[in-house]
Amino acid sequence: MSHIKPSQSSSLDDWLCYLEQLHPANIEMGLERVAQVANNIHLLDTPSKIILIGGTNGKGTTARCLEAMLLAQGYSVGTYASPHLIRYNERVRINGQELADQDHVDAFYQLEQGRGETQLTYFEYGTLGALALFKRYEVDYVLLEVGLGGRYDATNIVTPYASIITTIDLDHKEYLGDTRELVGYDKAGIFRTNTPAIVGDLNIPHTVTDYGLEIEAEMVLSKRDFYFTPLESGLRWQYLDYDLTLSQPAIPAQNVATALTALAHLNLLPAEQKVREVLDSLQVEGRFQKLSTKPLVYTDVAHNPESARYLRTKLLNLKNQGFKINALVAMLADKDKAAVIDELGDAVDSWTCAALNGPRAESAENMRQALSNTQQEEILAFQSVFAALDAMLPEQDDNSALIIFGSFFTVADAIQYWKNRE
């Protein structure tokens, strides 16, 4: 492939292909390079209030909840998320809407003029591009999802108005460490002195609070300062003088509680009726998303043990309604497949697996091996999610529910498959 530099009139696809070739690694830890480019083009000089959102799981749903609550009050909001499901444009939203291709092209062109000889990874380029767009649109609040860990993630070059950690679990162990204490310490790197630091994890590692105390962050902790209680038809959230019983949201109650606490602490929580209206209408693509009613089909991005545990609660609820649970799983090679599958063991009745495309994709045969402990006599393995669905859907009946999960790529394939059917 060519390394010819695109122009401001090039397509977004041309730019994305170019960015994929700029750096030999997908991930390079460290802030010096990305901060240097940001300073070159004055990206960090912005009046927007920036909220950093880190965590193993729940970043996207927490950001979507914050975004909806702020928009409901008339604020302008820029949101940066990754990865995308179908189109790159999903990564940057202004007031809940994706931007045109040319907006991204203009931002990348600006970065290319300002980076000089500094090499940037694809994610770093995307992060700086998002910051450029938020500055251009002069939004009131910026919601930045941290990509990997926290301390050395590209998003951590900003000065946050507040920092949030959603959950802490084992993922990306080759970069963050193989204990929750090590992972937590890395994620706590997004804290700042005398700045709100809201932590939603239900069993916070001491390394998080130790670091917060060391730098004198303004910590607000779950199970110490705020609480949530799952109810049969909703949840109860308590923080300071707030004590609300809310209907069942479409996203995990833990993430709702964390988002509401952050807003309340920042004096940004809407009136109670508005909170209820926003939660009732909240939907996040790819999070236990229903693709079809007949047959009953869901898809979910769960790809690590913690997210699998949450998915398990959803599947057990379906089982309690009398449905047989059939699962189609496709994952990346660097994920803990055995642990994810083990978490779902008692919730799934029948397993099928598939391969994904791309350099990090796990093969169909290796996925079959990962399922060997399920005691299922014969596990069908397909070379793509599309091929698996072609074979599986005719076999689904009114008493079964199909869950397609394992990766953002898996969900993207499932959504695309359904769009092709329509």
Automatic annotation (TrEMBL):
For whether the record's keyword set contains Cytoplasm, the answer is no
User: Which positions fall inside the Mur ligase C-terminal domain?
Assistant: 286-408
Q: Which Gene3D superfamilies match?
A: Mur ligase, C-terminal domain, Mur-like, catalytic domain
Task: Look up the signal peptide feature and give its range.
Answer: none
Q: In which pathway does it act?
A: Cofactor biosynthesis; tetrahydrofolate biosynthesis; 7,8-dihydrofolate from 2-amino-4-hydroxy-6-hydroxymethyl-7,8-dihydropteridine diphosphate and 4-aminobenzoate: step 2/2; Cofactor biosynthesis; tetrahydrofolylpolyglutamate biosynthesis
Gene Ontology MF terms in the entry: dihydrofolate synthase activity; tetrahydrofolylpolyglutamate synthase activity
Catalytic reaction annotation: (6S)-5,6,7,8-tetrahydrofolyl-(gamma-L-Glu)(n) + L-glutamate + ATP = (6S)-5,6,7,8-tetrahydrofolyl-(gamma-L-Glu)(n+1) + ADP + phosphate + H(+); 7,8-dihydropteroate + L-glutamate + ATP = 7,8-dihydrofolate + ADP + phosphate + H(+); (6R)-5,10-methylenetetrahydrofolyl-(gamma-L-Glu)(n) + L-glutamate + ATP = (6R)-5,10-methylenetetrahydrofolyl-(gamma-L-Glu)(n+1) + ADP + phosphate + H(+); 10-formyltetrahydrofolyl-(gamma-L-Glu)(n) + L-glutamate + ATP = 10-formyltetrahydrofolyl-(gamma-L-Glu)(n+1) + ADP + phosphate + H(+)
Known SUPFAM superfamilies for this protein?
MurD-like peptide ligases, catalytic domain (SSF53623), MurD-like peptide ligases, peptide-binding domain (SSF53244)
Keywords of this entry: ATP-binding, Folate biosynthesis, Ligase, Magnesium, Metal-binding, Nucleotide-binding
Q: Which residues form the Mur ligase central domain?
A: 53-194
The EC number(s) given in the record are 6.3.2.12, 6.3.2.17
One family name in Pfam for this protein: Mur_ligase_C
* Alphabetical list of NCBIfam families matching this protein: folC, PRK10846.1
Family matches, as PANTHER family: DIHYDROFOLATE SYNTHETASE-RELATED (PTHR11136:SF0), FOLYLPOLYGLUTAMATE SYNTHASE-RELATED (PTHR11136)
Q: What does this protein do?
A: Functions in two distinct reactions of the de novo folate biosynthetic pathway. Catalyzes the addition of a glutamate residue to dihydropteroate (7,8-dihydropteroate or H2Pte) to form dihydrofolate (7,8-dihydrofolate monoglutamate or H2Pte-Glu). Also catalyzes successive additions of L-glutamate to tetrahydrofolate or 10-formyltetrahydrofolate or 5,10-methylenetetrahydrofolate, leading to folylpolyglutamate derivatives.
Q: Which family does it belong to?
A: Belongs to the folylpolyglutamate synthase family.
Query: In its UniProt entry, what is this protein called?
Result: Dihydrofolate synthase/folylpolyglutamate synthase
Source organism: Pseudoalteromonas obscura
Q: Which gene encodes it?
A: folC
